[in-house]
Known about the structure:
CATH topology of the largest domain: 2,3-Dihydroxybiphenyl 1,2-Dioxygenase, domain 1
Largest sheet: 4 strands, mixed
Order of helices and strands: HEEEEHEEEEHEEEH
Amino acid sequence: MLKIKSVELIKAKGGKVTREPGPAKSGSTIIASVEDPDGYTFELLERGLSPEPLCQVMLRVGDLDRAINFYKKAFGMELLRKRDYPEYKYTYALMGYGPEDKNPVLELTYNYGITDYDKGNGYAQIAIGTDDVYKSAEAIKLYGGKIVLEPGPLPGINTKITACLDPDGWKSVFVDNVDFMKELE
């Protein structure tokens, strides 16, 4: 019951638990929700042991098929699973670079009838490692993304990155794997 321990630790540290651990409405996954000091809500998901403690990032999208195609083609992700819940009026797709029990996944959620979301000013970006930021930028352009920072080295640290917006306006950054490892040294 790792989830219970996490929730109890958050409570002990003065954190705000907004949903006690329990099964999800649409499945058997055990979920708890907590709120950080800035008001952002995080879901804690119970899953088996994994080398990756980050389970998933969820983005709400206005056109699920468009989003799936973009992340498959421009980011090289696989569609791991797609589920529709008409009784709750939403469909989601899990995208990733490997099995969800061993890797973080990107959840793309389409809520029936909603085609646009306010991005707010708290979300910054998702960062993804790549072997070639220049090729990543070309793939992004080819499949409908918008480059907002042309690929190349950042001044001062020389790490090569490129930044883009997906068709729904969510920002992602691709970071050169070799350069990023040098930053960690």
